[in-house]
Amino acid sequence: MSINQSGWKPTAPAKGEGAAPTFTGNKALMLEEPLIFEIGSTKTTGVDFAEGDVAHDRLGDLTRKAPIGLPGLSEQETVRHYTRLSRQNYAIDLGLFPLGSCTMKHNPRLNEKMARLPGFADVHPLQPVDTVQGALEVINQLAFWLIDLTGMHGVAMSPKAGAHGELCGILCIKAALEKRGEGHRKVVLVPESAHGTNPATAAFAGFTVEDIPATPDGRVDLDALTARLGPDVAAVMITNPNTCGLFERDLKAISDAVHAAGGYVYCDGANFNAIVGRVRPGDLGVDAMHINLHKTFSTPHGGGGPGSGPVVLSEALSPFGPLPFTERHGDGYITLVEEETVEDRHPDSFGRMTAFHGQMGMFTRALTYILSHGADGLRQVAEDAVLNANYVLRSLEDVLDAPFAASGPCMHEAIFSDKGFADGFSTIDAAKALIDEGFHPMTMYFPLVVHGAMLVEPTETESKAALDQFIGALRSVAERAKAGDPSLKTAPHFAPRSRLDETLAARKPVLVWKEPAPVAEAAE
Amino acid sequence: MSRYFTEDHEWIDVDGDTGTVGISDYAQGQLGDIVFVEVPDEGRQLTKGDEAAVVESVKAASDVYSPVSGNVVEGNAALADDPSLVNSDPEGEGWFFRIQLSDPSELEELMDEAAYEAFVAKL
């Protein structure tokens, strides 16, 4: 026989052999990545420019006198650095993202395909309108859907995120009050369970914010709210479903009372995914509501893409909405109503919030999502989002304190508290341990009305198998927290970095990288 | 010298017409590790309830309200270098500012130590 003498002898691995630490600190595909400043050197560069032709610059005293000291990296070093870092990140494409109130759901690939069609992706907002009729049709159709789904009168498409949409709605209310000669109404009432952006928006627009307490079951206290209404109240900002994951059953009564007192109702529509296709906010007396396309209508966010926050408006507020907007004519041709073309048709507009039409790429994705689901599919989105949240709530209420479990079914998010954890253990410890379990943690310590709040929003896009795995992980973590397992206090243990010292980082932040002193090179 | 507390968790020690103001041990415990403190400048006129100082922890930035009206005599410069004094000795070395009271009768609306302890116990 002929024998291959390369030395390769296939054998089954021996049992019980442990791992020795590696020379590099890497663990196979888990790479220990240095800072970009520690790669390359100030003596190298990734690009090779020819010497400039300019003999004399005109910077005078402003000319740099010493090298800037930034390291140079080759293209390959740079690409590898960021690709390696990206592998240490967590994303919706890697697993369940239970952040409550953020609505991190799957971004369908069909959305991406449509947004990349050259007719949508390669247009410029300053192109003549007869060359972008398809793009304008997308904006116009999406506007129609948003009005229809909310039962409202008009929509401002240009706001670029949820909080931007809030500002748009509040500016509409301000303009409407001033038009009525009631600019003296300066108070905006905000329930204590509101999104933090609500009071910030009202204050930014020049209003005074006053809190409205919640009832013990987690909803707005209707009596306290109506008692506070009066000639100085401009508006109420209310989130529905609210941040306790509950439907505000009294919203119609609240709206009627606010309108009777001469105010307007702003609804934070960040949680619209829980009621889309089931409830039309217009029927509940809402005057303005932003819709997070990046939540309800599945466009990417959280680093994956820009937000988009169109605002639907009641008949009373529509005349005050911002420019520009699309207008469809009888023959199907769409024009853009802007300052130059508005003439006297929209004289009360408060102005313009953005340079152009809005987030075109998000419009295309959101319309794709809406059309691919259809009206019945969107209704099922809300039903499944609520079903999934209730499944999480009921699966964990025996091990975690669920303060509103007795208030009836939750909407799109389940809320737990840290009551019952061992002394010295809090929500942060459970959240860090979830990182070890391979999950992004849930929203922590919000809403403020719940001690050590854990706000979980599974969304409709997770399967029962995925939910069961998450529930199992959170159950295990909760049991360890109740038992006082000391290893929780230093979790995460398996992440690229373990528990960070946030106090030291805040007290003594290192903001400038300094090149370490050169190590003496061995003589040749 | 007597010590008074507010419902917003400030304390004030009064000696003659001068008061020393800080935040309570309960307040520092709720805030967690303090990482930054901004105290009022000498000479600043404060009305009772005014935002007098800012205290920042890893968790949140909070305003500290003046428990009385008056004229700031001194801010605690040591807190700029070592904000952790508010954690280690909130009702001593971790004081925020000294104020010359313009209306000592305002003290009557504040709580004494026992009343404050009872107030905190209910939170």
Automatic annotation (TrEMBL), chain B:
<comment type="subunit">
    <text>The glycine cleavage system is composed of four proteins: P, T, L and H.</text>
</comment>
<dbReference type="InterPro" id="IPR000089">
    <property type="entry name" value="Biotin_lipoyl"/>
</dbReference>
<dbReference type="InterPro" id="IPR017453">
    <property type="entry name" value="GCV_H_sub"/>
</dbReference>
<comment type="similarity">
    <text>Belongs to the GcvH family.</text>
</comment>
<dbReference type="InterPro" id="IPR011053">
    <property type="entry name" value="Single_hybrid_motif"/>
</dbReference>
<feature type="modified residue" description="N6-lipoyllysine">
    <location>
        <position position="59"/>
    </location>
</feature>
<dbReference type="InterPro" id="IPR002930">
    <property type="entry name" value="GCV_H"/>
</dbReference>
<comment type="function">
    <text>The glycine cleavage system catalyzes the degradation of glycine. The H protein shuttles the methylamine group of glycine from the P protein to the T protein.</text>
</comment>
<dbReference type="Pfam" id="PF01597">
    <property type="entry name" value="GCV_H"/>
</dbReference>
<dbReference type="InterPro" id="IPR033753">
    <property type="entry name" value="GCV_H/Fam206"/>
</dbReference>
<keyword id="KW-0450">Lipoyl</keyword>
<protein>
    <recommendedName>
        <fullName>Glycine cleavage system H protein</fullName>
    </recommendedName>
</protein>
<feature type="domain" description="Lipoyl-binding">
    <location>
        <begin position="18"/>
        <end position="100"/>
    </location>
</feature>
<dbReference type="InterPro" id="IPR003016">
    <property type="entry name" value="2-oxoA_DH_lipoyl-BS"/>
</dbReference>
